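Internal QA ticket QA-208
Title: Verify multi-chain structure generation after dependency bump
Assignee: T.L.

Test input:
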Amino acid sequence: MAVNILKFGTSSPADTSPLKALKAAGYDSADILAVVGKTEGNGCVNDFSRTLSTHVWEPLVPDKAITIFSGGTEGVLNPHVTFIVTEKKPTGLQAAAGRTRPLEPHEIGTPEHAKEVASSVGAILNGAGISSSDVHLVLVKCPLLTSEKLESIKAISKIPATTDTYESMAMSRYASAIGIATALGEVNDLEEAMRHDTTWSSKASCSAGAELEDCHILILASDSKTEKPQIRAASTYMADAIDAGAILRILDRVKSDNGKVLQIFAKAEASKDGLINGFRHTMNNDSDIHSTRHARAAVGGLIAGLVGDTRIYVSGGAEGQGPPGGGSLSVFYTVAES
Amino acid sequence: MAVNILKFGTSSPADTSPLKALKAAGYDSADILAVVGKTEGNGCVNDFSRTLSTHVWEPLVPDKAITIFSGGTEGVLNPHVTFIVTEKKPTGLQAAAGRTRPLEPHEIGTPEHAKEVASSVGAILNGAGISSSDVHLVLVKCPLLTSEKLESIKAISKIPATTDTYESMAMSRYASAIGIATALGEVNDLEEAMRHDTTWSSKASCSAGAELEDCHILILASDSKTEKPQIRAASTYMADAIDAGAILRILDRVKSDNGKVLQIFAKAEASKDGLINGFRHTMNNDSDIHSTRHARAAVGGLIAGLVGDTRIYVSGGAEGQGPPGGGSLSVFYTVAES
Amino acid sequence: MAVNILKFGTSSPADTSPLKALKAAGYDSADILAVVGKTEGNGCVNDFSRTLSTHVWEPLVPDKAITIFSGGTEGVLNPHVTFIVTEKKPTGLQAAAGRTRPLEPHEIGTPEHAKEVASSVGAILNGAGISSSDVHLVLVKCPLLTSEKLESIKAISKIPATTDTYESMAMSRYASAIGIATALGEVNDLEEAMRHDTTWSSKASCSAGAELEDCHILILASDSKTEKPQIRAASTYMADAIDAGAILRILDRVKSDNGKVLQIFAKAEASKDGLINGFRHTMNNDSDIHSTRHARAAVGGLIAGLVGDTRIYVSGGAEGQGPPGGGSLSVFYTVAES
Amino acid sequence: MAVNILKFGTSSPADTSPLKALKAAGYDSADILAVVGKTEGNGCVNDFSRTLSTHVWEPLVPDKAITIFSGGTEGVLNPHVTFIVTEKKPTGLQAAAGRTRPLEPHEIGTPEHAKEVASSVGAILNGAGISSSDVHLVLVKCPLLTSEKLESIKAISKIPATTDTYESMAMSRYASAIGIATALGEVNDLEEAMRHDTTWSSKASCSAGAELEDCHILILASDSKTEKPQIRAASTYMADAIDAGAILRILDRVKSDNGKVLQIFAKAEASKDGLINGFRHTMNNDSDIHSTRHARAAVGGLIAGLVGDTRIYVSGGAEGQGPPGGGSLSVFYTVAES
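Actual output:
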């Protein structure tokens, strides 16, 4: 399915005025395949900005469309929504979306969770006729464990993946990422990958939220059959949180293509060993601000500075989404028709 | 006075092991003119990491040396100390340090405060024989208003500049910056500048702390009389928090000089109008994290990425230190002897 | 209008299941005069839990009903909603609700704001035939200044009451409280009271939120004409944040009436002089947690412990609502029919 | 060793003026057996207020004396220090102090840690001739895991108790508490108790800090041989965070003894099941404020209100120190000589 990408700033998590802007750009709400938003909450367990956006947007989009809201616009980042809309003619970019079945609370963050994501991603690719080698980004929004879910697990004598609600976000993201990596052929042994926390996909971008039970999945891929693609994609990974080189190399390519960046999707995290390039950082020892907030602010500052745009999708918690301490990076850009 | 710059990471605010590293590099504690550190507290009113560093370092440095600790190593930033040490032979860089008289609590953040800084900076420059046109950085550490100081002001029936302790940090920084700008000839009418909050110096870097009563002042300047300076300096300002261009222009100059960055001093702040390049940021509306912490994380991420080093001095709260929403930027670098 | 009070816990700010519980208790949604809730956000500027609750509840209540959501359930407090529902027969308790006109952003926190609240409260009392001497509680939810509102004020060259968004909440609450005090005859000179910040009402409970433009008003009063009231009310104030005596005196009265507490409405704040009973507290110097959050947690812990119930309405920011450092306190309780 | 208890407020973590107040009360620094303080940091991993107090106090007390600083004075609590000083004549209260050997990082929070505390407490009791049945309080300050310690464990191929620095505080407190319970005969099977997290002592009060390697231990006990004790002790536990009854019963006993409270030591925590008395609390789902901070604020508010004093020792994180969701409670009071 050929798609285009448009993005608009929001004045609050309840702001749906971007729909008007979308219509002014010539699209109808029926064209919406996905709404991917950054909202201004803490991006952690009690982030109700995500829930609020989900509440106001879901009635406005087609039933089959999905919404993915990622909390956290620390630092310079701008709260905004990105629309993935269908186009009648080929654009060079194609997309497909879907959902897993609802996960049982005790499945969250486990191999069962990863398998559900893997089979759903596989089914969506098959259904859309997209080759895994053309994929540049798989966005997943997945559930987390709240106190209530932990109690419901206890009530049926099951074992949760963790009893720490914040940690459950990380485990949920990792399971989703391993599912993606399995579906894309980046990982062969899912069970083995789930026993560690160091396997990764360079195309995965996962975020966890308390406001859903299933996983929402959005896939963006190049359309290799389009002759003169107007939209091109590039994906890579940042090796650590200050890897400006990875960003600059893609931006150089955009420049050499006379292109203009439509949107950047990046993952960010604090390295677990507490070091960046051999020097200590304090993100993991700060009991006032979670490390995901620190990482979004810093990596968001770097990418926004380099691309000159604060309306970018930088999401915290990169477990399995790029190398440890780094993160996956996908850039979509238009090229002028010659 | 000819000086050199050395910097070392710290394992905690109480870590004085950099003194050993300094000695291993051939210097003695008697050579220390200033210790300028970044510590890992919140950089706000109740940041005891600054106080702790002051406590452990002051007994170790010469009486006439000054210490300036700036709290806040959000995101990728590395807690570290930078030594300004005297050299016998010219290096191309000269420095001078001093203090104002203790400020009365009711003077903090007022024109009186600015005047004290102006006259002290002027006196230090005169005493050291440094021309104001050679100055690239004036670092000032200044006091703030705590609840206790507010009560002591009330007890003598004086009026504080503000009754909000966090806001007093901003007002203290602004007064210090206007003092610097006056001494350097960037501002002619101090009283007028203090009636607004938009006048600025591109050489000022001020931070406020609860642990002192006077202002500590450190001046770094080029020595225009040195024929082949090994250390060069460049100063400019970031126009906003994503002004990568300002940084890249200086780094290009360093590169063309075959230079190596010794240290970067930058100020950062959230723009008061809530916008960056026309798009909304949320730093001023976040009641969980103060805007100074957001700004340090974002600008620190940008500069650290571009220079490839997290041991940099990025300080929050740029009132009067660079244009609104931006900040002053000073870079010191060595050039290889030819 | 005769009313009853019922309260139910919520599982999240989006949880509207209390409506089912209300129906199970024999009431219809048409009976709802007001929904007064405590939601689990930070209670400060960027509290989207309030907005989310407003979004899910407003479509479910009658047009003339009002909703008041107060953020912040720090410590032991339970997120819940309290329904004020109309009864056909006299209960001993009567209520009336209404709204002011939308306030212009530059009016928020000013005498104009206070006057609007005063005249609206007066009109509501008149319309309902309630004597001001019977009033035990006036709840007001009022707007605050966000970055966007500050810019809109600037755009029309008006002056905001403050440029600090968090401080605007305090000023909005104070203006609302002075309006209430004026309407109830506790204050004679509104303009004079607005020049200071120390005048207060013992019946006022005001909270500010970014999600509204006008002020929502709910008045609860004894019905002195009912012969055998089943619901009784008592109101007083806590002199400081540890005034257990004020609470115990009311609870003793409930006990001597063989009563059972229906609901407690309390305001809490950190004393501005930084002292409680002569000893320093640190609520005003904590740059990681706003003082309103500290105060709700502490006073909530005290009241919940004494009444043995965590489903109580404790709201932070008591400017003008009780003496400085203390807060208004209203208790509603049923007495067994003899 | 006969002891007395004196307490004094502090103006900051660096304030040692209580030593003057102690001298004014007729004591010498050589009389100090222990300094037990509450400091105003976050009480979590990066609380440098504790480290700062340790730095300024340790040079001022005898070598054999111990210091225990517990961070966190949320809500109404007053930062202060409590001195345990030796008396020549019997007072009714006796004390003894000591330390364990330094714990290896990989031992923190493990059975090995618990055994070290158990054997040290046993040895201290033996050495002082104190019967375990007379003990009313065992205070322990124990180390935690920082990022650096986690890396040092990895470097020697050992397994840490947890890789989450904040969680390591809880595990360290639990191990210390089980050690105390074992030494006092409240627990028989230490290994078994360490396999769960629900065993507890009603005399234990443990706090963790990054600033030490060994465990500091202070024991307070009644002297049953004193005929007319001037100082009496009572210890019990709060069953949950709103258990006002437990506090009131002790305060009634103090009142009936015509006594005056010298000091209260209480532990507080958020119940893990997310409920208090059947109703949901939000302390465990708040990603902006750690649950220990919430619990200290709420329980501190309750106790301070009931005793009318904010200079009390309320410490967060009650793992193994009182029943789950509650906490140990020890009160020391003077009685007038008859």
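Spot checks passed. The domain at 95-228 of chain D is CATH 3.30.1330.180 (60s Ribosomal Protein L30; Chain: A;).
Status: verified.
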